[in-house]
Design goal:
The protein has about 240 residues and is α/β, with parallel strands linked by helices. It folds into two domains: about 110 residues, no CATH class; about 100 residues, Nucleotidyltransferase, domain 5 (2-Layer Sandwich). About 50% of the residues lie in helices and about 15% in strands. It is built from nine helices and five strands. Strands 3-2-1-4-5 form a five-stranded mixed β-sheet, with helices on both faces.
Length: about 240
Amino acid sequence: MASLNLFKWRHFLPEIILLGVRWYCRYAVSYRDLEEMMADRGVRVDHSTINRWVLKYAPELDKRIRPHLKPTNDSWRVDETYIEIKGEWKYLYRAVDCESNTLDFLLSAKRDGKAAARFFRKVLKAKHTQTPRVITVDKNAAYPVAMDELKEDQTLKAETELQKIKYLNNIIEQDHRNIKRITKPMMGFQSFNTARRTLRGIEAMNMIRKGQVKGINQGDSVSQAKFIEEIFGIAG
């Protein structure tokens, strides 16, 4: 009942709402594109309404998939990419393991040691991650500063290795491209909060797409859609 209450007063079936959210966070489409796509399925909904759906349910999707994620390994690849917000570049910190499984992400206004440390702490708190044996980064000077801080307060083990080997980070640079491909039609976000909430849905769909959910295979879009309905409590 609590899940169904999430959709109260929305004037559309939960299945339709989740379809819109899933498509927007999974494919490179604009809100107006999605309005047309929904109309083709006989659903008349304004693009601004779909926008409200995404901002409401994308963070909820991210939260609800977390208990279902497969464990990741202890070899981290960490990097940041640029996200445009109100005409300015902000920073999306991202981490994957050596098998390209997403560890976590963090949108930050700054690119410094404090931001990097805050990101590392977020990754370490995730239920599907484990303490890293090695962290591979680029030449950003913020990462050694963050590592020193976390080792000093014993958040990280002293023996955790930080290595700067560019070609080993190709795996996360490739993963960035999928996120950038989806955000490109959005032509920049209008606020930090809008970006943060939308990116949570995009990253969640990216994890589902990569087969990180227990019992759901990579590329099985039917099972993925059914899984999303199930975690929202609306599966038939």
